[in-house]
Amino acid sequence: MNFLAANRSWLLISWVPSILLFLSTALAEAHTQSTSYLTLHANAGEVTGEWHLALRDLEDAIGLDANDDGMITWSELRGRKDAVSAYALSRLQIRGDGPPGVLHLDDYLVADHSDGAYVVLRFAVAGLGHSSKLELNYRALFDLDPKHRGLLRLEENGLTRVSVFSPEHPEQIFDLAQPASRSPFVAFLSEGVWHIWSGYDHILFLLALLLPGVLLRREGRWQPVPAARPALVNVLKIVTAFTLAHSITLSLSALGYVHLPTRLVESAIAASVVVAAFNNLAPFFAERGWIVAFGFGLLHGFGFANALRDLGLRTGELAATLFGFNLGVELGQLAIVAVFFPLALCWRHLGFYQRFVLRLGSAAIMVVASTWMAERMFDFKWLPF
């Protein structure tokens, strides 16, 4: 082995711990996305709101299951009414032109969403007066789950404004005297990128497809591509096929034409990762990874659609939101490709890449995804974290 090849081998070996660390982190953090839905109505100086918080999130935050039987009854939920309202209303601050308003709980209900039961808090905000702006500070659940997102719909004089609260953006300011300065497209463009980067099942699915992207299947074994151009074309076909399929089902589901239960979708997404990784060990699609990407991309598109549908946007607003989100998904994938592809291209001639990175990496992905699939199908947590 010459000096350059030896250095490439050393670089590849040094990269492996990072892959394994990522896989272990993915296993620890893969779960149904935590989302809440906040709707505010601002009219003639009065602000009222409705906030939907998942029971599973509130169970983690303050505890709802009094007898620890794994079921949260209405009696248990009613008994924790004061604790739920105190927790939620202390983590949402609404300010006008002056001091913060005071939130008063008006109603305490339960509603079913596509991913489970939610507490519904209806409230009014006193002390704002006729303000020309609304400043919102949202800090619920971020300390427990940095992937939590609060989806906001603000209704004011027939105008709808949409935004997303995250640990990086817990504060939003709206000038009620001016048209919306941030369209749903802009708000959800970054969410599309985040959806890919934080969705470990999506990332592992993409990596499973990209690992053989710099190889060709010849005479029953993988061989390195002779040049970079065909490998790049193949990788771009995979990414584009995934985004196209993801966009189709995301749009159809969010618009209400197709609906699948969340547990079924999440279990099927995990299964798709298993199949994509298995294809690297016992190829049945060989270099036609874009077919796998498109077929299973249809499943992945359901992953965020339920949240968009539950936000209750009108058709025009939903169209802008979908376009921004789908573009963000594509940009997020291209960023991953930009990091992965040059490294894989550089190492494709090394037997170590085929024997260790491709095979062991694919096997590790299968183990992780199989665990997700079992957890999602049978609603249990095998690991303590």
Nearest-angstrom radius of gyration? Answer: 23 Å
DSSP, total strands? 11
The H-and-E topology, N to C, reads as: HEEHHHEEEEEEEHHEEHHHHHH
Structural class category: alpha+beta
DSSP helix fraction:
40-55%
The largest β sheet comes out as: 6 strands, mixed
In the residues, how many domains can be counted? Answer: 2
Overall residue-averaged pLDDT value: 82
Description:
- This protein is of the alpha+beta class.
- It folds into two domains: 3-30 and 189-378, no CATH class; 36-182, no CATH class.
- Helices cover 53% and strands 21% of the residues.
- The chain has helices spanning 3-29, 55-61, 74-79, 81-89, 184-198, 200-210, 228-254, 262-281, 289-300, 302-310, 315-347, 351-378, and strands at residues 35-43, 46-54, 92-95, 102-113, 116-126, 133-138, 149-156, 159-165, 171-175, 215-218, 221-224.
- The protein has a six-stranded mixed β-sheet.
- A hairpin with a 2-residue loop joins strand 7 (149-156) and strand 8 (159-165).
- Helix 6 (200-210) packs antiparallel against helix 9, helix 8 runs antiparallel to helix 9 and helix 8 (262-281) runs antiparallel to helix 12.
- It is elongated.
- Residues 1-31 have low confidence and may be disordered.
